[in-house]
Amino acid sequence: MTETLAAKKCTPCRGGIPPLTHEEAERFQSQTPNWELRDDGHRIERTFRFRNFQEALGFVRDVGDLAETEGHHPDISFGWGYATISLRTKKIKGLHENDFIMASKIDRMFDRSDGPPDRQ
Known about the structure:
Elements: H1 22-29, E1 36-38, E2 43-49, H2 53-70, E3 75-79, E4 82-87, H3 97-112
Antiparallel strand pairs: 1-2, 2-4, 3-4
Helix pairs in contact: 2-3
């Protein structure tokens, strides 16, 4: 994995392939350390913190635009001061490299924003 995840592009997943094993997911997760492995390694999740609702909403819009560009769509919940992003590849009912590519790109987007100093 010499190429950074954020530099990669999500590839269409047609299903019929196995999801990443827990060990494979842990290796990718080491490149996206702010994301937690959930559901016994079948999805990843991160909560982002903001100063108010408007900032959270703007971030969610940006993530939505990225999801459309990449063709890989996360589950998102948000409210005043937070946005929680959950990623898994639905066609294989588990994790794929695409999930970690998206996580890395979302992290970069968040790091470029003017979020509060106490963000997670």
